[in-house]
Design goal:
two-stranded antiparallel ribbon; single chain; alpha/beta; 6 strands; 204 residues; 2 domains; Rossmann fold; elongated
């Protein structure tokens, strides 16, 4: 454990980290700043300060799903640096490992993933053309599809990180609350156009 001696007080970094984690978890679960402050015996302004200090971005709730991808770690790292709310990216080998499970397990995992994705305002999907069309029909959310190739796609595809970063920046600049309204904002239309140009350039 790491301790700090400040005057006549000894401060535990682990204790601070645990309390901060509890405060943020309570906020994430829906408690108001006032409720959290009262629960942890701190001032409401302290809770607000913590949120401001750790804030990465504001905007819509965004998920990124991609397969089969060769540069998995780089794509995940980029997505995490942008503060995406959900990231699921895997290679063909990882995909085959999932598909090799029992039909019951695969079906349950698929349903769980689709259920989770319905909670997002936007889903950026890197997949084959057929998979993208299928997910667009199922989710009913705003889906930005980036075709990695024609289905069936059984080999890893390297994702253009520069193009993906530009697309994510455009998506994340969309105003909060625009998702799931049935109206695609101008920002998202532009992002979709870029995704289409990206996929067209891959085919050429």
């Amino acid at each position: 454990m790491r301790f700090y001696r400040i005057g006549n007080k000894v401060i535990s970094r682990e204790k601070l980290a645990a309390v901060i984690d509890e405060i943020l978890t309570d906020r994430e679960n829906g408690s108001t700043q006032e409720e959290v402050a009262n629960s942890h015996k701190v001032q409401r302004t302290f809770v607000s300060f913590l949120e401001s200090l750790g804030e990465i971005r504001r905007g819509p709730k965004v998920a990124l799903v991609g397969f089969p991808v060769s540069n998995v770690e780089s794509v995940i790292s980029l997505a995490e640096s942008k503060g995406l709310d959900f990231v699921l990216v895997f290679s063909q080998k990882e995909r085959e490992d999932v598909e090799s499970a029992s039909g019951y397990d695969v079906f349950n995992r698929l349903l769980e993933t689709l259920a989770a994705l319905r909670d997002f305002d936007l889903v950026v999907l890197l997949a084959s053309d057929w998979r993208i069309e299928l997910v667009e029909r199922i989710l009913g959310a705003e889906v930005i599809g980036i075709p990695l190739g024609t289905s069936p796609l059984r080999e890893d595809v390297e994702v253009d990180l520069v193009a993906l970063e530009t697309l994510l920046d455009d998506v994340l600049s969309a105003r909060s609350g625009q998702g799931r309204s049935g109206r695609v904002s101008a920002v998202l239309r532009e992002a979709a156009d870029k995704a289409e140009r990206w996929s067209a350039s891959r085919r050429s």
